[in-house]
Amino acid sequence: MMKKFLPAVFMFILAVSESSALVRLPSIFGDNMVLQQNAIINLWGFASPLEHVLVQMNNQTVECTTSPEGKWKVSFTPMKSGGPFEMIIKGENTIQLKNILIGEVWLCSGQSNMDFPLKKTNDAEKKIGQADFSSIRIFIVKRKVALTPQDDCEGEWLVCSPKTIGDFSGVGYYFGKNLHKELNVPIGLIQSTWGGAPAEAFMSIEVLESDPDFKPILERWEKQLEKYPDLLDEYNRNRESLLQRWIIDSTTAVNKGMAPSRKPNKPEGPGSRNTPAGLYNGMLYPLVPLSLKGVIWYQGEANAGRAHQYRKLFPALIENWRAIWNVGDFSFYFVQLPNLFRQPEPSKSGWAELREAQLLALSVPNTGMAVTIDIGDPVNLHPTNKLDVGYRLSLIAVNNDYGKNDILFSGPIYQSHHKFENKIFLNFKHTGKGLAAKNGNALKGFTIASDDKKFITASAKIEGGQVIVWNDQIKNPVAVRYAWADNPDCNLYNSSNLPASPFRTDDWKEVTFNKK
């Protein structure tokens, strides 16, 4: 009788203990974290249903009762920069967090060029050796694709040091390092990236389903999943021959000074980075509603084949993120795609169109764009100069968010034009003390066309704060383009040595117009 009774008692005790969940925090809260200064600080977690939770930090105490679903949330009133602090979370158990700082928190997101680690950038060994900043903290969200929004992610806060920084985003590091230098406050950098991922992977399924222009994205993915078993079988059968062909083709391309083709990968299927909303669910949603200052974003390569669609997709992504955070139009700064490939001449170019889509996104409130048309690599999709990319992004933040309005934060941006006789006169903003042709050379990168829509190389000069463009072969010009190529030869800058953004004055349909 007793032998039968003991297992029953054991099972009862186990059931009771499992139903009484310990207070727990998502991984975004931990030792060494940075919390946003001068803003409501949100903190949340998990515990037993209807459990009383108390949280203390920096002479503030907040309390709440866990929901029937076992979730809780509290908010601290805004705090000034400082630390280190400790935090105590009390429920049925007690959690103590240490070495917490209050400062500026930025989310670094996008695909491979934001993912690109500091250890692979220019002069990496020296830069990593100098990266000893106890007031800069980093957090890398572990890669995860999910079909539904997740309430937690994997990762941990680390103090920036030569031992910890090598795997962190090079762009993110240089951005944060310059902010720290300019502001002298703690900086928290959160990296949520996945190389090769399209924008739609970072957006909610509700937003993608709500717009007819995004319907082809979802339909294409559904068809891909249907074909996946057959595609995978074909890949496995032909894998060796595909790899051999790739080695030969890539070697030939490099010898010709061209970018090598992509290594053949398994076909995309379940769990792929291309899954619409997959990274939003697994790598972004778990961070909501963490208090942030803003976002820096480097993405677009994976959408260049659908650049015209990106005109609508990218602003929708920004609005999607702002909507789920629900704290207004937080800062959202992005990198315009750099030069790439050995195609300097004006041509039909998905990359040029994608850059234009990014330029148009500046119409979204509180956005900014770092132009990188001069610091790419013709044969490498991943340029190793991330110092200038991060620096240019930081200029935008320092000016827009931190009140240092004397800093020129952008290269020249086309504003308007007018025609007189056979010349077109271009006006720009963000010129500083004036426009300049880099190195004192003649202006390059301009093309001009009449109403036949055939562009030819144009002469150009700076005069009276304007750029004047012409070609004597065209008596009645109607359109001008600048740096409209994959890898344009261009040299228009402002007085702060920041390059002008590529642009065009026309709105003629280009190669990706109908590609969705």
In angstroms, what is the radius of gyration?
26 Å
Overall mean pLDDT? 91
Q: State the helicity in percent bands.
A: 25-40%
Euclidean distance between termini CA atoms: 71 Å
Percent strand equals: 15-25%
Helices and strands: which structural class?
Answer: alpha/beta
Q: Number of DSSP strands? A: 23
Number of helices: 10
The residue ranges in which pLDDT falls below 50 over 5 or more consecutive positions are 1-19
Shape: globular
Largest sheet: 11 strands, mixed
Give a verbal description of the structure.
This protein is globular. Residues 1-19 have low confidence and may be disordered. Helix 8 packs parallel to helix 9 (350-360). The protein has a domain at 413-504. By secondary structure, the protein is an alpha/beta fold. The chain is built from 10 helices and 23 strands. A hairpin with a 2-residue loop joins strand 14 (413-420) and strand 15 (423-429).
Defining traits:
alpha/beta; four-stranded antiparallel beta sheet; 516 residues; eleven-stranded mixed beta sheet; globular; single chain
How does the SSE layout of this entry go?
Layout: H1 2-19, E1 34-36, E2 41-46, E3 52-57, E4 60-65, E5 71-76, E6 82-90, E7 94-110, H2 112-115, H3 124-129, E8 133-140, E9 157-160, H4 170-183, E10 187-193, H5 205-210, H6 215-255, H7 278-284, E11 294-298, H8 307-325, E12 331-335, H9 350-360, E13 367-370, H10 387-400, E14 413-420, E15 423-429, E16 436-437, E17 446-449, E18 456-457, E19 459-463, E20 466-470, E21 479-482, E22 492-493, E23 503-504
Parallel strand pairs: 1-7, 7-10, 7-11, 8-10, 11-12, 12-13
Antiparallel strand pairs: 2-5, 3-4, 3-6, 6-7, 8-9, 14-15, 15-20, 16-22, 17-18, 17-21, 19-20, 21-23
Helix pairs in contact: 4-10, 8-9
